[in-house]
Amino acid sequence: QVQLVESGGGLVQAGGSLRLSCAASGRTFITYTMRWFRQAPGKEREFVAVIWSGGSTNYKDSVKGRFTISRDNAKNTVYLQMNSLKTEDTAVYYCNTREVWGQGAMVTVSS
After folding, report:
1. Measured between alpha carbons, how far is 45 from 93 in angstroms, rounded to an integer?
2. Dihedrals φ, ψ of 43, to 5°?
3. What's the CA dihedral at 100, 68, 60, 54 to 10 degrees?
4. What is the pLDDT of residue 1?
5. What is the pLDDT of residues 77-91, one digit of tens each?
6. pLDDT digit string, tens, across residues 39-72
7. Which residues neighbour 78 within 8 Å (Cβ) at sequence distance 6 or greater?
8. I need a surface site. Which of 7, 48, 65, 86 has the fewest CB within 10 A?
9. d(Cα 80, Cα 77) in Å, to the nearest integer?
10. Cα dihedral across residues 67, 36, 12, 77: positive or negative
11. Could you please report the per-residue DSSP string of 21-77?
């Protein structure tokens, strides 16, 4: 069973940057499609970014040009680099592959 553990959340001012990490267990990480989702207070969970095993990526429109998803297969880790953060990016960010979810990392962007 794959397990995912996020880290790197925190409090940052608008315009700042944070990098989230998601460490995965399992011997076949290189084959996993990895996704980031987020859930803001009182809202539904929404897709943020995806990276396929071949390295292709896709993003939610509102984060394009600001967020970058990447992976290090040697470390079984996927990253979400978040730049030019806005208050509306405040949410709990979740790492996902297949039906498995991490515990979430809180990101708070202050004005």
Report:
1. 9
2. -120, 165
3. -60
4. 84
5. 999 999 999 999 999
6. 999 999 999 999 999 999 999 999 999 999 999 9
7. 21, 22, 24, 34, 36, 51, 69, 70, 71, 72, 95
8. 65
9. 10
10. negative
11. EEEE-STTGGG--EEEEEE-TTS--EEEEEE-TTS-EEE-GGGTTTEEEEEEGGGTE
